[in-house]
């Protein structure tokens, strides 16, 4: 693996080069069908923690890059991009299905003897061994198209047909990866896990998240006000939760 400032600067995995002045970093994993822009409303730093949205291939400014295919592939490729950036404290935040490759990346990093994160924050996502229960994995293409339209409208934008079709293409590829993901038994992590539940989430209940208890010695649950996608607006309650361990 290569290392050094030039690796971080050239990496397509980050929408902005991680700062060499940062004292700590928070790497943010987007949900299925989305990209690093899911964190565009977040500040560039939370106190002294630099916010580093991760850009998966096959979307947004990486639309021409081949899709990662599986979470194993995603974790392997991302581990190489992350390795030069782990020389200072860091944490992972993954929302919805983004929590699953975040989890797999922690496992891969520690298997390689690289530093583990200070914490894994998982938001609105059941534990890996329960991931196959996601209702969206059973939806038809037309139903998923309607979900894309509803999501775009929910962000205050009138969906154009080309916008919907592009979003659907990304979502279908991401859902194929999510549908292929299987972890029958928990593989414990070497770091604390903080599980975030959104009080008004219609699809994921607090009971649905209890499976995370088997994934670390320290697992904490936090209930936040808002719905499933309200993390995108960087509510104060969320940002305080993300920085209070630092």
From TrEMBL:
Gene3D superfamilies: alpha/beta hydrolase. It holds the Pfam family Thioesterase. It comes from the Bacteria. Coiled coil: none annotated. Residues 25-243 form the Thioesterase domain. InterPro entries: AB_hydrolase_fold, TEII, Thioesterase. Belongs to the thioesterase family. This is Thioesterase domain-containing protein. It comes from Streptomyces labedae.
